[in-house]
Amino acid sequence: MKVAIRVDASRFIGTGHVMRCLVLAQKLKEHGHDVVMLSRELEGNFIAYSQQQGIDVIALNAIQQVAPSAPDDYQHWLGVSLQEDASECLAKLNDFHPNWIVVDHYAIEENWHSAIKACGASILAIDDLANRPLNCEIVLDHNPWPDFENRYNAVIPTHCTPLLGPKYGLLRPTFATLRTNPVEPLNNQVIAFFSGTDPSGECLKLLNASQKFSELPFELTIVFGMANPRKDELLSEPLPPFVTLTEVLPDFEADLAACRYAFGGAGVSAIERASLGVPGTLVSVAENQRLMAEHLASSGIYRYLGNSDLTTANTYFNELTWLSDNWESLPHRLPPSDIDGNGAERVVAEMESEKITFRPMVVQDLSMVRNWRNAPEIREKMFSQHVIQPEEHERWFASIQGDESKQFFIALSQGKPVGMMSFTGIKDGTAEWGFYKSPDAPAGTGKQLLYESLVLGFECLGLNQIDSRVLAKNPKVLHLHEVLGFQKNTKQQTMLRADGSETPYYAFHLTKADWQKDQRAKNMSGKS
């Protein structure tokens, strides 16, 4: 499987998007897949760092990034138009031919997704906002939002698989190891890490607060990050004897697992701390973290200082005072969570899944679908058996645009197109389906495609009945319809062709009620 990852880092974007994508990239490579990252050369990019982690990176054209006008002005993160970015990515991927494109970018939405699908890839969108339409096959949001199960219902297509909640957290493998093998005894240490860029200067505020103390009952380690714009100012500050200031911790996960307490943002670092059960104080260091930070604080497990644009050195002085006064009585560890550190493994398993998934057919699919349809072994099983020419195919596709009574989908297995599925004549909850698989699809694809198409029709499209017509000379598909529970009209019917010849066929139908009843029976018997 070939996977391309579109992600950026900059002094405005931060480094967290790249860091979590690196976790996914490493897990994909561990499974034997080819991975390439596409990142734009912005100020504060992590291209060199990603390459040092063993990931191939294609650098997109350098631009002068404009400062966002507001914290939620994400469009300026991209630096170019959606179409320009998608076109450049397509050109760069011309020889790679990805099965999947992972995109982790707040500026990118359904128009970019639709344009990039010209390369035939499926889309996995990593997101935290749920604030714009997405045209993807999988959406991943590993944050512990309130009501996270329903957060994306209004912005993803019906065929999209949501992977939501902290169990899908993109954490480095050492977190799973440290969780199952907890460190004992713990160090008398507090670790503070707010983000790779620390845009609001929380490290400096905390350091200035610590300078007001002659002593604290713990060691304070402030990790300011590799892209912190205040690095020189921080390093020029006098350090109290109980404070360590460092750009990175070479063994961050082990040090975090061994500390008593932590300060940090409410992004992925909060998920990391929760995985290890480290108590802590939260700060919302970005607008998109505010709701999550408030939700976590409402649980009573974490302390919360509010938005970073309102915190000051005095805020941290008060928090250090509270922490010092309560140090001996604080719990060493939080109750166990369900964040086991295996989220990346779950995401890769979903990408590798041989389960058939669907995406809407787009104009870029025309040549592929026409080649499938014109293959002799497919064409001879169709009601219309002539060889379809490109012009005819293009006219047909243009004619169905905007027609809600006709829905055409591409079936995918492991991100690779394996067939076409259609529902036509959609009216009053009833539709007729049509399908064919790629001549190159593995054995067994046809049955799986039809089974998952029933799920698509009944559960995603909301149909109450699916009708079908099958040529009498196609015994394999006739049998499949019976296996799937379709009712066959006992009388053979005939279609009159334009040349005067007759084509015998059988008509079938399956109601949603009968399908659900059959599913329940199979579940009770353990059959699939």
TrEMBL record:
<dbReference type="InterPro" id="IPR016181">
    <property type="entry name" value="Acyl_CoA_acyltransferase"/>
</dbReference>
<dbReference type="GO" id="GO:0016787">
    <property type="term" value="F:hydrolase activity"/>
</dbReference>
<dbReference type="Pfam" id="PF13302">
    <property type="entry name" value="Acetyltransf_3"/>
</dbReference>
<dbReference type="InterPro" id="IPR020036">
    <property type="entry name" value="PseH"/>
</dbReference>
<protein>
    <submittedName>
        <fullName>UDP-2,4-diacetamido-2,4, 6-trideoxy-beta-L-altropyranose hydrolase</fullName>
        <ecNumber>3.6.1.57</ecNumber>
    </submittedName>
</protein>
<dbReference type="InterPro" id="IPR000182">
    <property type="entry name" value="GNAT_dom"/>
</dbReference>
<keyword id="KW-0378">Hydrolase</keyword>
<feature type="domain" description="N-acetyltransferase">
    <location>
        <begin position="356"/>
        <end position="511"/>
    </location>
</feature>
<dbReference type="InterPro" id="IPR020023">
    <property type="entry name" value="PseG"/>
</dbReference>
